[in-house]
Amino acid sequence: MTPLTSVSTSASNASELARIGVLGGMFDPVHNGHISMAERAFNLLQLQQLHLTPCHLPNHREPALSSPQQRLQMLRLAVGDRPGWYVNDMELRRSTTSYAVDTMQQMRADNVGATLVFVLGIDSFNTLDTWHRWQDLLKLCHFLVLSRPGVELAAQLSSTLELEQRQVFSAEQLFIKQSGHIMLVNDLAVDISSTQVRSAVSQCNGLDGLVNSQVLEYMNEQGLYQLS
Fold this sequence. Notes:
Keywords: ATP-binding, NAD, Nucleotide-binding, Nucleotidyltransferase, Pyridine nucleotide biosynthesis, Transferase. This protein is an alpha/beta fold.
């Protein structure tokens, strides 16, 4: 297997005003829903950097079906040459379970003075109170929560997270301080999942609009997600 290529996350050390987003996930495979989320976050918050960070050993779901190197390559193809976007393999280089709090602590250490934003969909956000050391995450970064059709905010989170005190409604409000704010964005209507993509491949259904054409070509070359 080709060695994993690390990505430097310290490019923003010189600027205390740097805004850095982190979008994690299995990316098994990366699909157009992921890219729509990333674009919305990057543009809405005027981020200097956006790191797409594939998970190695997940805590809340089954392991990936494709290899770490394959997921990295699909991400690189999907990201292309977008300025400020990085495919970050820090979690893949760890041998332990991937926890968001560990990733954000490393990002904080590598980017002193920057403001960090953890980007995620509302379906993942609804499970936040079950995450490892989730309270510490709120001390490390802000949250940008993006909508998904048919998924509502879990009722218990409002009180658990003290949402009334933490919620903000604009990028300007989000960046007033370095961590602890939550911004909910309800205008993203893309409803695609990696499970849906894998199912379409295994059933020989079309993938129009679901994945990047270069990603699709790579999946076909590698024989990914096809029934044996």
